[in-house]
Amino acid sequence: MLFNSLSFLLLFLPLSWVVFYALARFDHRYAGGWLVAVSFVFYSWWDASLAVLLAASIAFNYFCGTRLLRAAESDRERFWWSLIGIGGDLLLLFYYKYFFAILEWLGLHGIVLFSDLHPVALPLGISFFTFTQIGYLMDCKDGIVKENRFLDYGLFVTFFPHLIAGPILHHREMMPQYRNPESYRFQSRNFAAGAALFIMGLAKKAVLADFFIPTVKATFAQPQHLALLPAWNGVLSYSLQLYFDFSGYSDMACGLALLFGMRFPANFNSPYRAACIIDFWQRWHMSLTRYLTLLLYNPIALWVTRRRVAMGKSVSRKAQASVGGFLSMIALPLFYTMILAGIWHGAGMTFLVFGLLHACYLTINHAWRGFGPKPKPGADSFWRQRLILVGQIALTYLAVLVAQIFFRAESCADAGKLLLGMLGTHGISGPLQSGPLYVHVPMLVGLFAVVWTMPNTLELLEQFRPSLSDIRRSSLISIALRPTVAWGMALGALAALAVFSVTGTTEFLYFRF
Amino acid sequence: MKRTFTAALATFLLIFAATWLWVAKERMAFFDISYAGWRAKMDFAKTLPKDNVVILGDSRAVAGLVPSVLGPSVYNLALAGCTSIEAAKWAHDLTASATPPRAVILSFTPVNLMATKSFWETTAKCGFLTRQEIETVWERARQFNGREYWPEGESYARRSSLAGPKSPGDIEIRMKADLYAEDFPPCYFSALWGGRIIRRLNINRKFYHETYAARGYYPFGTADECAEAGLEAQTPSFQPVKLFDLYLRESLALFEGSNIPVYFVSAPVNAATTPSPEYTAAFCAYIARLEAEFHNFHSLGTPQPTWSAQDFGDDFNHLRPPSAVRWSKEVAQKLNEEHVPGGPFG
After folding, report:
1. What is the pTM of this model?
2. Domain enclosing residue B203, as ranges
3. Which of A141, A193, A390, A422 is deepest in the core (most CB within 10 A)?
C-alpha cells in the first residue's frame, strides 16, 4: 500500500489509528498486536503471498536470534547461528535482487544457455526488512540484545511506517519504545507533530516531486541528443524530484510513527546543503549511512587495523597521514562500503558506478582533510568564509548531481551521453522536455531557493522533538512551527492541497530498492 | 494547541467543501473540451424529437458523420473514446424514451472492439454511466475470467480498471468509482489544475453550444493531411473481446425488441492504416454473424474503405470537415437506397 493512496488515507490510516488507541486503553500489548496485524495487511495489500515471505523471514530471524541469546557462553555456537541467520538473510536478498540479473547477464554473454527465464518480482521492501534483521542478529551475536519477546520483535520488523522504504531502524532505539506502555497513550503533542509532518511529507511527494515526473521521464528516456539547457533542465528536475520524493517519504514515515506514539531516527536533513561529501552522507538516507558504517565500514576498518597491528605496522593518526596508511585504513574500507552500498540499490552497472563515484568522492574528501591545507581560525573575513562555504556547497552538489545521473540512467552509456549534453556538445538550447517555460523555470528556481535557504521539516518542528535524532540546524532563514491559528490555517490549506493531489498516485522512488 | 487544531481543521474543511461544490456544479469551468461535447450530447438526447435517427459509435463517427448533411432528424450521439458499453447505455435510454429513434446508424472502429484504454474513468468522470452500471460491467467482465478483454502487455492498473476489483488491493479501484460518483474533488484535481479552476469555462461553454447546435458533430485534428498508420495496421486479425461483443449484442437485441433497425457503416482510413486481408475478412465474418443473428441489423458498404491522406486531420484517422461532409453524403445515399425509416437522407 502507498502512503499517498486513497485507500491508505481514507480507510487504512483512520481505522488502524482509532482501533490502536482504543485497544491501548485495555492493554498496550493488544495495541502492539494490532499494529503487527495491520502492518501485515499494509504489506500484503497488492499480493497476499508477500505476507508469507515476511512472516517466514521474521520467524527465521527470531529463531536464530533466540538461539544466539541462548548460546551466550559458547563462541562457537554463536558463530554458527549468526552465520546461519545472516547467511540465510543474504541468500534471500541475493535470490530476489541479484540471482536472475546475474543469470540474465551470463545468458547475454553466452556463458549459460537458457530456453526460458522467468525472473521473480522483487518483493517490496525486502532490502529494508532484511537489513533491519541482519542488524538485530549482529547485536544478538555481540551480546547487545538481552531479551527478545516475539511481539516486540514482530513489531520492530513490521511496523508499517518503516516497512517498505525505511528508515532502517536499530532495535536499541525502538525496543524500549515498544515495551513502554507510555508510548501507547495518546498525546496531543505527538499527534500535532505527527499530523504536521505527514501533511508536509504528502505535499512534498504529491505536489512537488510528482510535478517533475514528465520532465525526468522524457530526459532519461532519450538522453542521446539533448542540448545543454534541456539536459541541465532534466537533470536538475530529477535531482529535485529525488529530493522531495525521498524527504517526503521520510517525513511521512516519521509523522506516521509519531501518530502511533513512536519516534523514528531522522533520515533526511537537507543533504543539498552539505558543504562536503562526508557531510552529505550524514544528511542523506541517514539511517542507511549509520547502518553501513556500523555493519560494513567499521568491521572492515577494524580488520585492517588488526592486520596492520599483527604485521607490526602503526595504526596511529600519524600512520593514517602516510600514503600507505591512508590507502589501507581509510580508502580500502570506504571503497568496500560504497561499492556494496551502490549495488545494494540494484544489480546494474549504473549502481556500481554510483557507488564507485561516491567512494572516490569520499576518499578525496578524507585525503583533503588529511593532506590538504589546514584553515587557520580567524584568518578569513566573515564574507570570505561565506563565499568559501557557498563554493563548497556548490562543488558538493555538483558531485552529487553527477552521481545521481548514473543512479537514474538506464545505462552507463546513457549517463555519459547526458553528461556530454550538459557540457554543451549537442548545442546550447533546444526544446525543453517540460511544460510551459513560465511554470517550469520559476518552479526550479523557487524550489532550489527553498532547499538551500529554508528550514527543513524537522527544523520547523524542532520544539516537538519529531525524531530521535538531534538535527543540526543549517538554514539561512529561521522559522519554527508554533501552535498558532495562522500555522493551523497554513497546515489546513496544505493538507487540502496534498489530499487533492493524491489520485494521480505514483510510487515512491525508493520503493524499488 | 486546540486553537491550532481547530484552525487547521476548519481551513481544510472549508477549502475541501468549496472545491467539492465547484466540482459538482461547475465542471465545465475546468474540464477538458471533450467533456463539453459529452455533456451537449447527454443534454440534447433528453429532448430528441419524434421520428429521430441517431448515430452511435466512437470518435471516428463523431468527426465523420455530419447530421446537418444527413438530414434534419439525424442526431450524432457517438462519443469520443467510447466502447460498445456506452453504446448499450444509449440503447437502454433510447428504447425507454418517449421518442425512440426510427433507426440507428452504428459506426465502430473494429479495433476499438478489441481493446480499450479509456474505459472506465472517462465515462465515470463525465457522469455518463452510474456507479451501479460500472459495477455491472465489472461483474460481467469477471464472468469471462478476466483474460478475454485486454491486450497482451496491458498494465495491471489498466486491466483491473476494466475488470474491476479482483483482490483486496483493488479496493482502490472500487473506491475511486464510488468517489467519482460523489464528485470527490481529488478525483478531479488534475483537471482542476490543468484548467486552472475556471480558465476553461468560456471555451467549454462555446463548444457545448456549437456541439448542441450541430446535433453532436464536431471535428478532431487540425492537420492538413495525415498519412500515419493507425492501430489497425499493427493488428494482424480481428477478434472482438467478449465483453464488448456482449454489450454490442445487448444493444442490438434492445433495438430489435423495439423494432428499431440498426445500420452499420464503417469509417474510412488512410492507406497506411488499411488493415490486412485477414483482419478485414475476420471483421466481415463477425458482422455477417451479427446480421444473421439480429434481423434488424444491416451492414452498409465496405468495411474501412481507403481514402487519401488529405482526408484526415490527425493520427487517429479522424476525417477533416470537408471529408466528413463527403462521407456523410455517401452514407446518406446508401441509407436512401435501403429506404431506411426516418429518411429521406442527405
Report:
1. 0.82
2. 2-337
3. A193
pLDDT over 70 for what percent of chain B?
91
Chain A / chain B CB contacts < 8 angstroms: 87
Number of domains in chain B: 1
d(CA A161, nearest CA chain B) in Å? 18
- Min distance B136 CA to chain A CA atoms (Å): 22
Q: Inter-chain contact A492–B12, Cβ cutoff 8 Å?
A: yes
Side chain identity, residue B265: V
Partners of residue B187 in chain A, C-beta under 8 Å: 503
* B342 located within any domain: no
Q: Residue B153: what pLDDT? A: 43
Distance CA A333, CA A119 (A): 33
Among A43, A245, A33, A10, CA closest to A161: A43
Using CA atoms of A379, A385, A389, A395 in order, give the dihedral in degrees to the nearest 10: -70
Residue A225 annotated in active site: no
Chain A residue with Cα closest to B176: A6
The arithmetic mean of pLDDT across residues B85-110, rounded, is 95
Query: Residue A114: its pLDDT value, please?
Result: 66
Which one of the listed residues A162, A285, A345, A426 is annotated catalytic? A345
Closest CA to A205 of A163, A269, A249, A236: A249
Q: Count the neighbouring beta carbons within 10 Å of the beta carbon of residue A102.
A: 12
Distance from CA of B12 to the nearest CA of A (A): 4
Domain-located, residue B344 = no
Strand, helix or coil for residue A104: helix
What would you report as the CA-atom Rg of chain B, rounded to the nearest whole angstrom?
21
Confidence band (pLDDT; 50, 70, 90) for B170? low
Which residue from B94, B77, B93 is spatially nearest to B41, judged by alpha carbons? B77
Round to whole Å and give the CA distance between B299 and B252.
13
Q: CB of A7 within 8 Å of any CB in chain B?
A: yes
Residue range A463-510, pLDDT digits in tens: 888 888 877 777 777 888 888 899 999 999 999 998 888 866 555 555
> How are beta strands B306-307 and B297-300 bridged, if at all?
unpaired
Question: Which of chain B's residues have a Cβ under 8 Å away from the Cβ of A484?
Answer: 3-4
Nearest Cα to A474, choosing from A455, A450, A448?
A455
ipTM value greater than 0.90: no
Q: How far is A434 from chain B (nearest CA, A)?
A: 14
Flag whether residue B21 sits within 8 Å of chain A, measured between CB atoms.
Answer: no
Residue of A45, A202, A503 to mutate, interface with B, max B Cβ within 10 Å: A503
Which residues are CB-contacts of A142 (< 8 A; sequence separation ≥ 6)?
Answer: none
What residues in chain A have per-residue pLDDT under 70?
Answer: 114-117, 119, 432-436, 503-513
Q: Is B157 on the interface with A (CB under 8 A)?
A: no
Question: Are the C-beta atoms of A476 and A456 separated by less than 8 Å?
Answer: no
**Mean pLDDT over all residues of chain B?**
87
Residue B299 lies in a domain: yes
C-alpha cell read off for A377 = 581560525
Q: Which residues of B touch A5 (CB under 8 A)?
A: 172
Q: What is the pLDDT of residue A426?
A: 86
Facing residue for B9 by CB, picked from A48, A492, A500: A492
Q: Look up cell 538506464; give the residue.
A: A410
Residues from chain B that touch A503, judged by Cβ atoms under 8 A, are: 176, 186-187, 189-190
Is residue B122 a part of any domain in this protein?
yes
Q: Are strands B269-270 and B306-307 parallel, antiparallel or unpaired?
A: parallel
Inter-chain touch B8–A491, beta carbons under 8 Å: yes
